[in-house]
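Re: that chain you flagged

S.,

Sorry for the slow reply, it's been a week of failed gels. I finally had a moment to sit down with the sequence you sent. For the record, here it is as I used it:
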Amino acid sequence: MAIGLLFIMAGIYLSHVRFTSDPIINPDVYKYKNVVIGAFLMFYIGVMNGTGSVVTGYMTNVLGFDPVLNALTHLAILFGLCISIPLSTYLLFKRIYLATIWVIGFACYGFYHMILFFRFYPGIDSTDFFVPLVFKGLGMGFLFPVSLLYISEGVPPILSTSRMMTGIISQAVFASLLGSAILGTFITNMNIQHKTGLSQQLSEVNKMAENQLETYKRNFLYMGLSDAEAQKKAEKSLSNQTAQASILLAYKDIYLVMSAICFFPILIILLFKLWRRPIGRVEVEPIPI
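Prediction finished late last night. Pasting the structure tokens below so you have them in one place:
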């Protein structure tokens, strides 16, 4: 449905541009190949960056962390940015190849997701998120500046607004909304599958589950419930125990998939020997002050 609405909105906007002398996004900007590729890169980076909301939701809703503690934990991203942005700027100033910075950035995002895949376990603490979030900050600092410069490369100043809006919409609108919808759907489906699989193991064959069920039942009988009510509540309590385990497995799945998505561009860049050159000429309109 979201993809269908995307095409409808694009058609409406193209009709609007046909009868507008000064559109916000001039379609002529897409005649430049780097704008099209840069918009896709911004979308790709936005999707990778969107998994941060998954971590925040997990810390708050599943682990029950305090929001202030979440904010302090995410200062690790700022620490990574303080390292990567000056370093990437210096490398660009020294005319390093674009491919080198992109490989470093995608690798940092890949390590961010891979470390979190191994960190999702029962009893995870807030300190366990510090190192992966530092890698996320490093990835952001390496990828965003070079992508913003690449999408601006060779575009005349008259189209700089169209180029800027293309990058913003690709990352902040399409990647955030469509990416969040895909991630949320994936997590929900995997959570249901894992919960179903775990619930199927709660049978008489599983002695540990049977002993736990009897313990719950005795507790409810001690509280004065009837045998039928105690049995029902004991089964519900045992089933609820699988909820956190299933969501834990679902988050591990999404971060394993995202780590593969992050490392995949590195393979493409190295395999096809792309962007083995420094950044070219970038012209923008002056700030109207």
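What I noticed first: Residues 42 and 193 are 32 Å apart (CA to CA).

Talk soon,
D.
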